[in-house]
Design brief:
The protein is α+β, with helices and mostly antiparallel strands. The chain is built from 9 helices and 13 strands. The relative contact order is 0.13.
Length: 365
């Protein structure tokens, strides 16, 4: 297929403008041709970045409009809203105004780009980029603290404040009693940790195992409000996955769970690391610690990093590392891994619905 026609097809697929027959044909093409699939992943990522850029410009424009209106009406002066004080001032005075909410989002977005850029510069010595999301930075934390104080003062009933995080990533249950697997680099130097489910409920967690060599960590939810899950829907195999095997992942590069799909592109990781896989899939900061799952509902790996100077080259540590971890901590913790996948044979939509309750956002400061 001509590249121009292919890019047009990718955009129509993303906008859900294809007929059911066209969509089926396009998905079969991606399934049978890794080059087309890779192009679809890269172009979709490009389109998403353009959308985010447009949103950022729109927020900035809204911020400027609100500021000019308030200045022209004599409500505030430019001196009152200089620098960071602009966000705090507008939040305290106009927190119920939708325009001001957009202003705060603009400032957080701009701060996000700056911090991610600074973090990336420190990683230039290597070719790997950990996928931890620093969008939840100190400024965001301060805004949340202000919001919580105001809401607590005005609400009829006390509200439990949300955890003010400086970073976020992903983790998933390996035992329904509250044991969660993630990457060691995710919780590195974190003083406090919480895990958050898709409903926004937060639970205190502590690390019970950390291995920097394999980049694996296991957390335990200690919060008494957590309700254990009787049976996990997926299994965790010891055996290696097959080259070309189609896989998918769920994670938290945003404040909601995000789905991504791809295939196993190599049985070893960066520089031939036999403890990892190389996979072709679209990921972003926040995906670290997310499960890599095959069509049979087996968690074959944990997303850990991507190659800095290459698109779609992502690495995931193999699930067998979880078994090695349990052998080291079996004297202090009783963890029972799921042996069978209840979602085997289900269509992808129903698989996701059963899995997403077991995938958590990991937050720390």
């Amino acid at each position: 297929m001509d590249d121009t026609l292919l890019l047009d097809a990718i955009e129509r697929y993303k906008r859900d403008e294809m007929t059911a027959q066209e969509k089926k044909f396009f998905e079969e093409m991606r399934k049978n041709n890794p080059d087309i699939d890779q192009m679809a992943v890269e172009h979709t990522f490009f389109l998403n970045e353009l959308e985010r850029l447009e949103q950022r410009k729109s927020y900035k424009h809204t911020l400027d409009e609100v500021e000019n209106t308030l200045v022209n009406e004599g409500i505030i002066s430019k001196k009152q809203i200089k620098g960071r004080a602009k966000v705090i001032y507008l939040w305290n005075r106009y927190r119920k105004t939708i325009a001001v909410a957009a202003c705060i989002a603009a400032i957080v977005s701009i701060s996000t780009a700056t911090i991610v850029s600074m973090y990336s510069e420190t990683k230039q010595a290597t070719n790997l980029t950990p996928l931890v999301n620093f969008k939840l930075n100190e400024l965001n934390g301060k805004i949340n603290q202000i919001k919580n104080k105001i809401d607590s003062a005005t609400a009829a009933m006390p509200v439990k404040p949300k955890f003010a995080a400086q970073f976020s990533a992903t983790g998933f249950l390996i035992d329904g009693n509250g044991f969660i697997a993630t990457n060691a680099h995710v919780i590195n130097n974190a003083k406090n940790l919480v895990v958050e489910n898709k409903k926004g409920d937060q639970f205190i967690a502590i690390p019970v195992y950390v291995n920097k060599a394999t980049d694996l960590a296991i957390l335990k939810i200690t919060d008494t409000t957590f309700k254990k899950i009787t049976a996990l829907p997926y299994s965790i195999p010891r055996a290696s996955a097959e080259l070309g095997e189609h896989i998918f992942t769920l994670g938290y590069p945003r404040d909601e769970v995000v789905y991504g799909e791809g295939y196993l592109s190599a049985k070893s990781g960066y520089s031939g690391d036999t403890a990892s896989y190389q996979i072709s899939i679209s990921v972003n900061p926040g995906n670290s610690g997310g499960p890599v799952i095959n069509k049979n509902g087996e968690v074959i790996g944990i997303i850990s990093s991507k190659e800095t100077n290459a698109d779609g080259v992502v690495f995931a540590i193999k699930s067998r590392n979880i078994y090695k971890a349990l052998e080291e901590i079996k004297t202090s913790q009783l963890i029972k891994l799921p042996a069978a996948a209840a979602i085997k044979g289900l269509d992808r939509v129903h698989q996701i619905k059963k899995i997403e309750d077991c995938v958590f956002m990991i937050k720390g400061n």
